[in-house]
User: What shape does this take?
Amino acid sequence: MVGLAMFGLGISMFITSELGLAAWDVFHQGFGRKTGIPTGIVIELTGAVIVLLWIPLKEKMGLGTLLNAIEIGLVVYLIDDHLPHSNLLVVRFAYLGVGLLSIAIGTGLYIGAGLGSGPRDGLMLGLAKRGISVRVARTGIELVVLAAGLALGGAIGIGTVAFTFGIGPLVHVCMPRLRLRGDVTVLASAH
Assistant: This one.
Protein backbone atom coordinates (compact mmCIF):
# COMPACT_ATOMS: atom_id res chain seq x y z
CA MET A 1 0.00 0.00 0.00
CA VAL A 2 2.86 2.39 0.81
CA GLY A 3 4.55 1.65 -2.52
CA LEU A 4 1.36 2.37 -4.45
CA ALA A 5 0.83 5.60 -2.51
CA MET A 6 4.42 6.62 -3.34
CA PHE A 7 3.70 5.88 -7.00
CA GLY A 8 0.59 8.10 -6.98
CA LEU A 9 2.48 10.83 -5.14
CA GLY A 10 5.25 10.70 -7.74
CA ILE A 11 2.75 11.10 -10.58
CA SER A 12 1.17 14.06 -8.79
CA MET A 13 4.59 15.65 -8.34
CA PHE A 14 5.27 15.33 -12.06
CA ILE A 15 1.92 16.94 -12.83
CA THR A 16 2.55 19.77 -10.32
CA SER A 17 6.05 20.48 -11.70
CA GLU A 18 4.50 21.47 -15.05
CA LEU A 19 7.80 20.48 -16.69
CA GLY A 20 6.43 17.50 -18.59
CA LEU A 21 4.54 14.40 -17.63
CA ALA A 22 5.63 10.77 -17.50
CA ALA A 23 4.86 8.94 -20.75
CA TRP A 24 1.79 7.12 -19.41
CA ASP A 25 0.50 10.41 -18.05
CA VAL A 26 1.03 12.12 -21.41
CA PHE A 27 -1.26 9.40 -22.72
CA HIS A 28 -3.73 9.79 -19.81
CA GLN A 29 -3.76 13.57 -20.23
CA GLY A 30 -4.24 13.38 -23.99
CA PHE A 31 -7.04 10.85 -23.61
CA GLY A 32 -8.63 12.99 -20.89
CA ARG A 33 -8.47 16.08 -23.06
CA LYS A 34 -10.18 14.23 -25.91
CA THR A 35 -12.92 12.78 -23.67
CA GLY A 36 -13.27 15.25 -20.78
CA ILE A 37 -12.60 12.49 -18.20
CA PRO A 38 -10.40 13.56 -15.20
CA THR A 39 -6.81 12.20 -15.24
CA GLY A 40 -7.21 10.05 -12.11
CA ILE A 41 -10.23 8.31 -13.62
CA VAL A 42 -8.45 7.85 -16.99
CA ILE A 43 -5.59 6.15 -15.10
CA GLU A 44 -8.01 3.64 -13.62
CA LEU A 45 -9.85 2.99 -16.90
CA THR A 46 -6.58 2.55 -18.81
CA GLY A 47 -5.37 0.04 -16.23
CA ALA A 48 -8.46 -2.09 -16.74
CA VAL A 49 -7.93 -2.16 -20.51
CA ILE A 50 -4.19 -2.92 -20.24
CA VAL A 51 -4.87 -6.10 -18.28
CA LEU A 52 -6.20 -7.53 -21.55
CA LEU A 53 -2.68 -7.21 -22.99
CA TRP A 54 -1.53 -9.62 -20.29
CA ILE A 55 -3.32 -12.52 -22.00
CA PRO A 56 -0.59 -13.22 -24.59
CA LEU A 57 2.10 -12.58 -21.94
CA LYS A 58 0.45 -15.09 -19.56
CA GLU A 59 0.65 -12.68 -16.65
CA LYS A 60 -1.49 -13.44 -13.62
CA MET A 61 -3.50 -10.96 -11.61
CA GLY A 62 -3.14 -10.71 -7.87
CA LEU A 63 -4.24 -8.49 -5.03
CA GLY A 64 -1.48 -6.04 -6.06
CA THR A 65 -3.08 -5.76 -9.50
CA LEU A 66 -6.42 -4.71 -8.08
CA LEU A 67 -4.88 -2.37 -5.52
CA ASN A 68 -2.68 -0.76 -8.20
CA ALA A 69 -5.64 -0.16 -10.50
CA ILE A 70 -7.55 1.54 -7.69
CA GLU A 71 -5.04 3.16 -5.35
CA ILE A 72 -2.70 5.02 -7.72
CA GLY A 73 -5.50 6.78 -9.59
CA LEU A 74 -7.25 7.53 -6.30
CA VAL A 75 -4.09 9.04 -4.77
CA VAL A 76 -3.59 11.23 -7.86
CA TYR A 77 -7.26 12.22 -7.80
CA LEU A 78 -7.10 13.15 -4.08
CA ILE A 79 -3.78 15.01 -3.88
CA ASP A 80 -3.09 16.34 -7.39
CA ASP A 81 -4.66 19.75 -6.73
CA HIS A 82 -3.28 20.03 -3.19
CA LEU A 83 0.48 20.05 -3.81
CA PRO A 84 1.84 23.61 -3.63
CA HIS A 85 2.63 25.13 -7.03
CA SER A 86 5.70 27.28 -7.58
CA ASN A 87 7.15 29.33 -10.39
CA LEU A 88 10.68 28.71 -9.07
CA LEU A 89 12.49 26.28 -11.38
CA VAL A 90 14.46 24.80 -8.49
CA VAL A 91 11.22 23.75 -6.78
CA ARG A 92 9.75 22.41 -10.01
CA PHE A 93 12.91 20.39 -10.76
CA ALA A 94 12.82 19.09 -7.19
CA TYR A 95 9.29 17.83 -7.86
CA LEU A 96 10.64 15.99 -10.93
CA GLY A 97 13.56 14.38 -9.11
CA VAL A 98 11.62 13.39 -6.01
CA GLY A 99 8.67 12.26 -8.13
CA LEU A 100 10.88 10.01 -10.26
CA LEU A 101 12.50 8.44 -7.19
CA SER A 102 9.12 8.08 -5.50
CA ILE A 103 7.74 6.15 -8.48
CA ALA A 104 10.84 3.92 -8.76
CA ILE A 105 10.92 3.09 -5.04
CA GLY A 106 7.15 2.69 -4.95
CA THR A 107 7.36 0.24 -7.87
CA GLY A 108 10.03 -1.79 -6.11
CA LEU A 109 8.01 -1.88 -2.89
CA TYR A 110 4.68 -2.91 -4.33
CA ILE A 111 6.04 -5.45 -6.84
CA GLY A 112 8.52 -6.74 -4.26
CA ALA A 113 5.62 -7.56 -1.93
CA GLY A 114 4.86 -10.44 -4.32
CA LEU A 115 1.12 -9.75 -4.47
CA GLY A 116 0.99 -9.12 -8.22
CA SER A 117 1.90 -6.18 -10.37
CA GLY A 118 -0.23 -3.38 -11.67
CA PRO A 119 -1.51 -3.38 -15.22
CA ARG A 120 1.29 -1.28 -16.73
CA ASP A 121 4.08 -2.98 -14.79
CA GLY A 122 2.64 -6.37 -15.77
CA LEU A 123 3.61 -5.57 -19.35
CA MET A 124 7.16 -4.85 -18.21
CA LEU A 125 7.34 -8.04 -16.15
CA GLY A 126 5.85 -10.12 -18.97
CA LEU A 127 8.66 -8.94 -21.23
CA ALA A 128 11.26 -9.46 -18.49
CA LYS A 129 10.15 -13.10 -18.16
CA ARG A 130 11.00 -13.49 -21.84
CA GLY A 131 14.61 -12.41 -21.33
CA ILE A 132 14.38 -8.63 -21.82
CA SER A 133 15.89 -6.64 -18.96
CA VAL A 134 13.54 -4.57 -16.83
CA ARG A 135 15.42 -1.46 -17.92
CA VAL A 136 14.97 -2.16 -21.65
CA ALA A 137 11.37 -3.41 -21.32
CA ARG A 138 10.24 -0.40 -19.29
CA THR A 139 11.97 2.13 -21.55
CA GLY A 140 10.51 0.54 -24.69
CA ILE A 141 7.00 0.58 -23.25
CA GLU A 142 7.42 4.21 -22.21
CA LEU A 143 8.46 5.19 -25.75
CA VAL A 144 5.45 3.46 -27.35
CA VAL A 145 3.02 5.01 -24.87
CA LEU A 146 4.64 8.42 -25.28
CA ALA A 147 4.04 8.27 -29.03
CA ALA A 148 0.36 7.42 -28.44
CA GLY A 149 0.05 10.24 -25.89
CA LEU A 150 1.54 12.76 -28.29
CA ALA A 151 -0.91 11.64 -30.98
CA LEU A 152 -3.77 12.34 -28.52
CA GLY A 153 -2.46 15.83 -27.70
CA GLY A 154 -0.74 15.19 -24.36
CA ALA A 155 1.86 17.74 -23.19
CA ILE A 156 5.56 16.92 -23.01
CA GLY A 157 8.63 18.62 -21.57
CA ILE A 158 11.97 18.01 -19.93
CA GLY A 159 10.23 15.90 -17.28
CA THR A 160 8.88 13.62 -19.99
CA VAL A 161 12.39 12.97 -21.28
CA ALA A 162 13.74 12.45 -17.73
CA PHE A 163 10.99 9.96 -16.94
CA THR A 164 11.05 8.09 -20.24
CA PHE A 165 14.78 7.40 -20.06
CA GLY A 166 15.21 7.41 -16.25
CA ILE A 167 12.43 5.23 -14.88
CA GLY A 168 13.57 1.98 -16.52
CA PRO A 169 17.08 2.07 -15.07
CA LEU A 170 15.82 3.24 -11.65
CA VAL A 171 13.19 0.49 -11.44
CA HIS A 172 15.82 -2.00 -12.64
CA VAL A 173 17.94 -1.03 -9.61
CA CYS A 174 15.09 -0.72 -7.06
CA MET A 175 13.10 -3.89 -7.76
CA PRO A 176 15.66 -6.52 -6.71
CA ARG A 177 16.70 -4.51 -3.65
CA LEU A 178 13.16 -4.01 -2.33
CA ARG A 179 11.86 -7.58 -2.77
CA LEU A 180 10.47 -9.36 0.24
CA ARG A 181 11.93 -12.75 1.02
CA GLY A 182 9.96 -15.35 -0.90
CA ASP A 183 9.00 -13.09 -3.83
CA VAL A 184 9.25 -15.27 -6.94
CA THR A 185 8.83 -12.55 -9.58
CA VAL A 186 11.17 -13.47 -12.45
CA LEU A 187 13.53 -10.68 -13.49
CA ALA A 188 15.85 -10.87 -16.48
CA SER A 189 19.48 -9.99 -15.89
CA ALA A 190 20.77 -6.62 -17.05
CA HIS A 191 21.41 -6.27 -20.79
Q: What stands out?
A: The two ends are 30 Å apart (CA to CA).
